[in-house]
Amino acid sequence: MHFVRIEAEGTSKVQTGQPSMRSRLRSRFRAISTFALTAMSLAAISGCGNTFRPVVTSINPVGPAAQPPRYAVVISDPALGIANSTLPGIVTIVDFSGDTVLITANIGVHPYYFILNSTGNTGYTLNRDQISADNPSGNQTMSSFDISTTLQTRDVVLTTLLNGSNPNTIYSDATALFVSAPGHNAVAQFKETPPPPSLTQELALDSNYSPVYIAGTSGRPRAYVIQQNKSGGAGEVSAIELASSTITTPIPVGVNPVYGVMTADGNRAFIMNHGDGTVSVINAQTNQADPVPTPAVNPIPVGTGPIWADLAPTRNELVVANQGDGTSKGSVSIINIPLCSTAALPGNPNCDPNNPIDASDFGHVLATVPVGVNPQMVVVLQDGTRAYVANKADSTVSVVDLTHNTVTATIPVPATVHPNFIAAISGTPTGKVYVTSPESDQMTIIRTDTDVVETTIPLQGKGVMVRTQAP
Fold first, then answer.
1. Which domain holds residue 366?
2. What number of other Cβ atoms are within 10 A of residue 152's Cβ?
3. Based on the domain organization, do 244 and 306 belong to the same domain?
């Protein structure tokens, strides 16, 4: 303050030719002020000491991309085994990641067959409604519904099917919906959109045979109606030509065929012949029985009572569940099914990529692996590492290592006694296997990284079938 007063006083007087004492003091004050300001600036620049202190900006870690939601969809029947009941069936949607029930809704009475369409966003069930002493088979209906966490009973559409058709399976293609109708010796074709599904025509079949299943891959030129001989003996398959919606000349297969699968490319179809322990191979490109290369034969001999099959596409293998005699152990047969390629037949001039023939080892049974008693169904993980087999008689699931063709675990499923249906979703770090039973109101969920039961899901009725949106 003293320096300020001196400077103020100095500026209030007239200066002479010689610097006054106040002028000299003012000059010294300015010099001292300049020095102080310079020192302060240097201190601000240098900071504390001469160590460089970088500025760190935090970056939040970025985790893996979120996986789209996937669901297991279960059909159950609270009236199963109850005479003259009008209780509706139940659809239950279960979250894959959290193993929680997201929504339930009522469907038709006594549902007994269930599929998802090729995109996994619509479900269809066959139901036997209004069963009574006068009408023991009931009025057949078909429920259709969106797979949604906001699904409500009012959103479920019920379609009445033709009386006496006795439908047993549904096949959904991108072009139409097909329902096998053994009571009419026909396949009923429905238009799917807009809902509800509407009947467009019935495709007549040979009256000496009865349809039991439709095998196909959505978007391919044809699907196959599997038919059993009403008098026993060899069955047959008839192609549904999807472009023209017509039925072609039947192709003979083995005795008592019960199930079939088609490869994703639509080139081959495989028919399980329960009555003679064989698998028939259909070349779906030529619509003929496949002339498999020697020494393989067509039909291919497998175990006793083949009842189900699933494809291991990454391995070019077909895994067949053989039921056996029902009292001793059944088995799975693993069949090699590669088509020709640059790797399989590099110098074969007949290998046309647009019409590939069988590779030289096509149809060879690589192994027959014993599993549990009375296996009903098999499902293969999409990475090709393992297959899971539902064994009805001993209430277990067998885990088959497809690299070494051995059983690596046998998993008891006491909450799902006598399982009859199994489905899987692959995933990282773990996938899930879902098991249902018509004798249990619980669904068992198995982890695929540990092959142990993770949990059970209570259903509101006895388990009928379970399907998954993504395999």
1. 302-412
2. 12
3. no
